Amino acid sequence: MRIRRRIATTVTSVALATGGLLAGGASPAAAASCTPWSDDNTIGVTCTGFSGEFRVSAACNDGVKKYGLWVSPGKWSYAYCSGHKGWSSANQQFR
Fold first, then answer.
1. Beta bridge partners of 44
2. What are the pLDDT digits (tens) for 81-90?
3. Please, which residues have CB within 8 angstroms of residue 79's CB and are 6 or more apart in sequence?
């Protein structure tokens, strides 16, 4: 149940981030479709449907921010909060 709640939060974050960028006009995130995966310490995301790169950003439970690698569409980006009491929220960054 805890993982499902976190994934739902991540999907909501993706929708909010994408919606905000859609309002701004030309953004690689405008056409992005992202799928998250997570466990208690790790969040991974893959995105497709755009050109450019993306990465996942996670807020760890102890206040530390962690970032995945910049990757191309169809690849997975992972942020690790192991040793930081797990993660509490996440979103994607596009460039």
1. 37, 78
2. 999 999 999 9
3. 42, 43, 44, 56, 57, 58, 66, 67, 68, 87, 90
Residue 71 DSSP label: B
pTM assigned to the model: 0.71
CA-atom Rg of the chain in angstroms: 13
What pLDDT digit, counting tens, does each position of 59-89 carry?
999 999 999 999 999 999 999 999 999 999 9
Residue identified by tokens 């466990």 is 39
Indicate if the alpha-carbon torsion angle 58, 81, 78, 39 is positive or negative: negative
Buried b (16+ CB within 10 A) or exposed e, 57-93: bbbbeeeeebebeebebeeebbbbbeebebbeebbbe
Beta bridge partners of residue 55, listed in sequence order: 93
